[in-house]
Amino acid sequence: MPTPKRGRESPANDTDQSPAKRHANEPTVPQPQDGDFQIQNKFKNHYEFDWVKIVHGFVQKPKQTHKDAVAHSDADSDSSSDDSEEEFDEHTDPEDAIGRCDALLIKNHRINFYHDMEEPSEGTSALAFELFDRYGRLRPEFKEHPIKKGSGIWKDELDSGPIFLIENILIDKPYRRRGIGRKMVAAALEEMRSKSKPFVALTKPGAIRRDYEKLKENLTGEERKWFFAEELRVAIAFWRSVGFRRIGSSGWFGLASAVDHPCHSLSASEDYDPPVPPNRMLYPAMGSLLADIAAMEDNEALERVKQAFRDAPIPPNQTCDPAMESLLIDIATKEDNECVEKLQQVFEHLPINDPRCEARDDDGNTVLHIAAIKLKPKSVKWIMERNTQLISTRNGEQETSLEALQSQLEIQRTRRGSNYLSAIVPVSDQFEGFTEEMLACLCLLNGQTNLSSIALRRLTFGCTCGQCIEGFLSPRMRYALLCQAEFNHDLLRDELEFQSGDRFVKWNEDSILRHVPHPVRENMKTNKSMRGGFADLCNHFAACLRGNKLPITTNVLDALQNANEWPPTSRTFLQRGGTVESVGSMLFESAMQQDELAGDGEHLELFGDEIKALPECRNDHEFGFVSGMCGYKRVSHIRFVSMMGEPLDDY
Questions:
Q1: Which of 21-35, 145-159, 198-212 is the most confident on average?
Q2: Which of 67, 188, 556, 596 could share a disulfide with 604, CB 3.0–4.6 Å?
Q3: What InterPro entries does the database record attribute to this sequence (predicted)?
């Protein structure tokens, strides 16, 4: 069960932007000179996760002037067992602290990336699920999509190596707009460069700050949206001013420590910003508004914001007329048949080229986007026949309706929400295929009709290579399983000649015999034929793969039947309680453990040329999913236990 998160009190946002236009009632604070402030960054091991270090920085107004801002650490961040680390409470700052920074040094990517990153904090969870795939690789669309790749400067550098995640920067009100935030970021990055191998610093500029929460409670909906947009604009400008650049089209920004990385040569003005959807209000920038209210009391700040909103030249909402607004809501909430009736009523009297046909919601989604995302194939079909132009229209995420649906299906395949502290649970291994509604929408938007049964199965199970056996066993996974089956057969056969039964079982009981029931393992100690049968079933498993057949139990038994095996070792193993499942689960688990993403990479090191000659597929590394579809245990590196500490085989 996921551990409770420490929610971020305020996002990575310091409104350290333009020279402050001071308000008349603002407390007088002496302008800082060089060296007025002391900046300290302290590192300590995370109390629960050995692959994370907590980095806490704070700014003090020293009693005596210092010549330069000092970046200080009590430990080397590369050493997780450094005895010189000073224990500290990251929630308690010195009395004279006037600013603080909370960050995490994620020392390397984890094999169980989604599962591991979900636990330490909301920031690590958001980072994992918004930017990366389940193995810690930057999502393909942020590297390859013609629009969502953004500036195109981010490639594979995020796929390995340390990440310096800046979760929060907050400067006390009287000291804002004085460059302290920039100095804190610069000091932290400089210290990281001095003690860590190349890393990438990441942050997500925030737009909801702790000290503005009470203010926002008293704003209207439109005022809150406008204030949100203003905060976000200022936060993004701040992070760009210290060198961070947007990751693809996402809301995340990064800065690579390598001096030759393209992020250092891309100017802030050249950095990518997603286009604003046509209907979204273009809230005007309010210049020094945030500077004006930085040191005000809540009531005074509230009145200043409301006055600025009243004076702002806010353009009218161009979403659509009331009928279209109602239609967008109905498409998202009503049953498919009702949606078709509503579409007919609204569009009946509109010309094909009427601009109202392209009405959008706040996220830039058209009626076709919404119908696709909400899995309403009848509505999708009706809209596509009525207005083909909507097929290529992009939403606020710069996705066509097909791309939006594909993104939604990928989310449903890999994760689900949990009621436990709003946690996100990775579920890739539990995938069992897309539903009929999902497939119907995919086929319509792809223009696919009259699919063969195998083509439909490949679409059902997310195959992208067009060659998956039964729709889900890809050529690369088939080859990995074949290598394991042949290797384990030969290895175990050799061990039979040199090891006693007791030694054979004891040596292998926690590895290749892990899925064999305990009573059967006990019999194997004294029955050499049973030990040989376990080994020979690996060969029959391999025979299925060599024949391009799915290695399910019935096919393995057919291979056994056709082999005319003598002596009948496999039959002896099966007749005395052994199962094909125990062999199949072991082979899937062994292949997973040597996979380049799910394991230690040994398979790629040994057979790199052969693997590269095979087509890539979305299913190449989904060992839990494929093993489950074959009727075996859904293998995983994650071991689940009950509240009593007993192993749970099924997740």
A1: 145-159
A2: 596
A3: Acyl_CoA_acyltransferase, Ankyrin_rpt-contain_sf, GNAT_dom
CA–CA separation, 648 and 651 (whole Å): 7
Asked which of 110-114, 191-195, 196-200 is least confident by mean pLDDT, the reply is 110-114
CB atoms within 10 A of CB 486: 16
Q: What would the pLDDT profile of 497-528 be if each residue is shown by its tens digit?
A: 888 999 999 999 999 999 999 999 999 999 99
- Per-residue HEC secondary structure of 390-430 comes to HHHCCCCCCCCHHHHHHHHHHHHHHEEECCCCCCEEECHHH
Phi, psi angle pair for 512, to nearest 5° = -70, -20
In angstroms, the CA 31 to CA 33 distance is: 7
- SS3 sequence, 307-352? HHHHHCCCCCCCCCCHHHHHHHHHHHHCCHHHHHHHHHHHHCCCCC
pLDDT of 94 reads: 62
Q: Which is nearest to 597 in space by CA: 10, 244, 27, 114?
A: 114
Torsion over CA: 564, 568, 573, 577 (sign): positive
Tokens of 266: 């891309």
Give the chain's length.
651
Percent helix, percent strand, percent coil in the chain, to nearest 5: 45, 10, 45
pLDDT, position 34? 41
Q: Residue 56 to residues 4, 167, 180: CA-CA distances in angstroms?
A: 20, 10, 15
Higher pLDDT, residue 446 or 64? 446
The count of other CB atoms within 10 Å of the CB of residue 641 is 9
State the Cα–Cα distance between residues 38 and 28, nearest whole angstrom: 21
Amino acid present at 579: T
* 94 cis-preceded (ω within 30 degrees of 0): no
Using the Cα atoms of residue 296, residue 298, residue 300 and residue 301 in order, give the sign of their dihedral.
positive
Check whether 644 has a pLDDT greater than 60. no
In which residue are the tokens 């302008």 written? 31
Contact in structure between 41 and 187 (CB atoms under 8 Å): yes
Q: How far apart are CA 54 and CA 46, in angstroms?
A: 6
Strands 200-203 and 163-171, bridge-based pairing: parallel
**Do the bridges between strand 200-203 and strand 245-246 make them parallel or antiparallel, or are there none, so unpaired?**
unpaired
Q: Which is it for strands 647-648 and 245-246: parallel, antiparallel or unpaired? A: unpaired
CA–CA separation, 441 vs 381, rounded Å?
Answer: 8
Task: Go through the domains of the chain in sequence order and give each one's CATH number.
Answer: 38-213+239-276 (3.40.630.30), 322-449 (1.25.40.20), 475-648 (no CATH)
What are the tokens at 244?
Answer: 């961070």
| Distance between CA atoms of residues 635 and 592, nearest Å | 8
